[in-house]
Amino acid sequence: MGLFSSSDSTYLGIDIGDSSLKMVELSKKGKKIVLNNYGFSEDLGVANKLTSTDDVEYVAKLINKVKKDIGIGAANASVSLPSFSVFSSVINLYNVNKKNIAEHVNEEAKKVIPLPLEEMVLDWKVIPQEESGPNNPSSNTKIFLTGSPKKLIKKYINIFSTAKINLVSLETETFSLIRSLLGNDKSTVMIVDLGANSTDICVVKESIPYLNRSINVSGNTITEAISQKLGISPEKAAQLKFDLGVAAMGDNQTAVPQIIMNAVSPIINEIKYMIDLFENSNDEKVEKIILSGGGSVLVNLANYLENTLNVQVIIGNPWFRVSYPKELQPVLSEVGPRLSIAIGLAMRSIE
């Protein structure tokens, strides 16, 4: 879908998922962030996992096809790195000399990153803390550490070089979600991104992801469960799942079908585990859960999770800081959860 013309002042976010490709193009007009274009590929199926394939030409051609079909002319893009491929951790450094902090970070990284450091690209930043006092000694420095495989980064560079698109930045999906769903909200929340082939769960405190987990229970898991239970094709099951989700949006009286309840139970168990782990380690509560991804609009799922977990659960709105024509609101509300990462990526260059 092409909404407006592209220009040099536009910002493009490209979310490369396992089985689909999403793009959002934004621009800055005064203090407003404005939607220019958006779109996504059709579901390519599990057999064509874009995040794991080594076929650079295939991915580059798909990117250019979607870009052309949407009508995007922007030549610069910020792109997502899959959360399950990037290691991240909050580490504590004690009694360190700030001048030699990089050396201390590398030494700690060897202890927590399971791969040799020479195979990784490390990035880190100091987490701001309250001024030192009796309950917060200055000897403790918290560091947010990320490690991305060099092989993965090289592949993405090759993909966009082949596609003749300027790769402005690579960013872990989690940070894109934080930007689009939280903005300046510094509260402690959990983001649950229900994708086609995996579900990424993250506890965020003051815009820093403190805990990250990725599990192989997803939208496709639910589709398979519906297909097997009702004896229908995966294609019909996927459409039924989508129709149920769209029909239930805004309807608080719709009950969650038992098939879906059973399919999402591993996700619920993982959410409970991560909340307990975080709250016991940090002595503070997760204030709410924000759902994202295509699976988030499933048949009253937010209310079901809220009642089961006894925590506020909402479907995230990645458009809340974006201006767009009012007549597009119904369709943007429907597709928004699928585009949260791409929206956050496009915002990266604006902010």
From TrEMBL:
Matches recorded under SUPFAM superfamilies = Actin-like ATPase domain
* Pfam families named in the record: PilM_2
Gene3D superfamilies with a match to the protein in the record: 3.30.1490.300, 3.30.420.40
Q: State the InterPro entries in the record.
A: ATPase_NBD, FtsA/MreB, PilM
The name this protein carries in UniProt is SHS2 domain-containing protein
- Can you name the source organism? Candidatus Falkowbacteria bacterium CG10_big_fil_rev_8_21_14_0_10_39_9
